[in-house]
Amino acid sequence: MFRITASVNSITTLKEYGMSIPDDIRLISLTGHSIGSMLETTMSSMEIPAHEMGEKAARMIITELIRKKKRRVSRSIWYANL
Q1: Bridge-partner residues for 12, per DSSP?
Q2: How far, in Å, are 47, 50, 51, 58, 74 from residue 78 at the CA level?
Q3: d(Cα 21, Cα 42) in Å, to the nearest integer?
Q4: The 3-state secondary structure of the chain, one letter per residue
Q5: Backbone dihedral region of 16: left (phi > 0), alpha (psi from -120 to 50 degrees) or beta?
Q6: pLDDT in tens, 29-75
Q7: Residue 27: which of 3, 45, 54, 53 has the closest Cα?
C-alpha cells in the first residue's frame, strides 16, 4: 500500500508545483500495480523482481566478504513484466 500512496503523493506534489504529467514529467511505477489506469494522469507500471534482486545482491556481498577481495565487474540480467 505504501508504494501506491507514494505514487499518488508524487502526482499530487508535482501538480502543486505546476508540473503537467506527462507533458513536463513522466512517471513510472515499479510495483507492478495497475494504478495508472485508476488515475486521472498517465502512469506506466512495470513489475521488477525486487526480492530476487535483493537476494542476489546479498549473496554477492557475502561472497566478497568471505573472499576478502573485490570482484571487478558483475553483471546480472533481470526481466521485468510490463
Answers
A1: none
A2: 11, 10, 11, 16, 13
A3: 7
A4: CHHHHHHHHHHHHHHHCCCCCCCCCCEEECECCCHHHHCCCCEEECECCHHHHHHHHHHHHHHHHHHCCCCCCCCCCCCCEC
A5: alpha
A6: 776 666 555 666 666 777 788 888 899 889 888 888 888 766 666 77
A7: 45
Q: Compute the distance between CA of residue 19 and CA of residue 49 in angstroms, rounded to an integer.
A: 31
Quick one: cell of 31? 510495483
Tell me the three cell numbers of residue 34: 495497475
The single residue listed with the C-alpha cell 505546476 is: 18
Residue type, 12: T
